[in-house]
Amino acid sequence: MCPVPENYQGHQNVELNDEHKAKNGHVKCINKSIESGTVGTVQIMQSMKEIATLLSPHGNNTKRNQIGKCVVILFYTRSCPGSVMVGPHYVALAKIFPHMTFAAIDAFKFSSLNTEFGIIGLPTVMLFHQGRPVMRFNDTQSTVNNFISFILKYTDMRSPLVHNAYVTSEDFNGPLPSKVEYDTDYYLYLAWIFIILCATYHFTKSHLYSQIIEMIKRNWRESEAQTEQDLR
Questions:
Q1: What is the pLDDT of residues 132-175, one digit of tens each?
Q2: pTM of the predicted model, to two decimals?
Q3: What angle do CA 27, 29, 32 make, to 5 degrees?
Q4: What class does CATH assign to 43-173?
Q5: Distance between CA 148 and CA 92 in Å, rounded?
Q6: For residue 184, what is the enclosing H or E element?
């Protein structure tokens, strides 16, 4: 598991139900309308506007035993080996439940959500009902079959494909990355340049800098004087 960005400040707004509450009943989900033969896929979130739309509730129902919009979200990052390993399994899961919404959010790109939803490590899979976090996937093995068990245990969603679930080579082709990718952090480079420039400026104003410059000038004058004597 990979750590989240350093600006994480703890579980502030997350409202996850614990497993004891989850056993009292499944979350009731609305079946997403799709055309016959449509293959389920994972939506990669590109903006906060898309995320807000994704988590917008359907109607005014707020209780878990009332039917509502269910969304499963994978919090990941391209530079995390664990996220890359989970990716194909999560893509395969979306194909098993085409009537359910599956999305993926880059936890480094949208780091503010880590605090809001209590994300402390990557990858993390969470179930949302009416825009609220309901349950976190806690199994140590993030495989497509364990993901299926998670959906069946905590929602009323069912699929005839659950008994024929497996990861194919096509699932490695996206939309989630199947290879670790390291992005260049240009802001970090700019920050280091700024720090170096500031440190250099303050050093030039220090007493030590003045002493060094004066010593260099003195040695230079002595060297010139010695050279003139040698020429005579």
A1: 999 999 998 999 999 999 999 999 999 988 988 999 999 999 89
A2: 0.71
A3: 160
A4: alpha beta
A5: 10
A6: none
